[in-house]
Description:
Blueprint: H1 3-25, H2 38-61, H3 66-87, H4 90-108
Helix pairs in contact: 1-3, 2-3, 2-4, 3-4
Amino acid sequence: xxxxxxxxxxxxxxxxxxxxxxxxxxxxxxxxxxxxxxxxxxxxxxxxxxxxxxxxxxxxxxxxxxxxxxxxxxxxxxxxxxxxxxxxxxxxxxxxxxxxxxxxxxxxxxxxx
Length: 113
């Protein structure tokens, strides 16, 4: 995959994440509807942390396949944003930031034409 293609896919992931944020902020999607449910919040946080802990090492192993690498980190980013806006949990938002940094470091910057 060429660097231009990697950048196009990365921009697509970022646009989807920004669209998700926009939909929650303009109240098209309900925001913070599971704030009171601590059990669900804990389960979603745990799933987000496990997804991040699995995706980062796996993304390092598949760096030669940038499409798979971008899919792994894009999933972490979008899941983290979604769970944050449903549960108001900073844990999954931190996981989304970790996924974004990993995508930048391992997929976008080192790729070559």
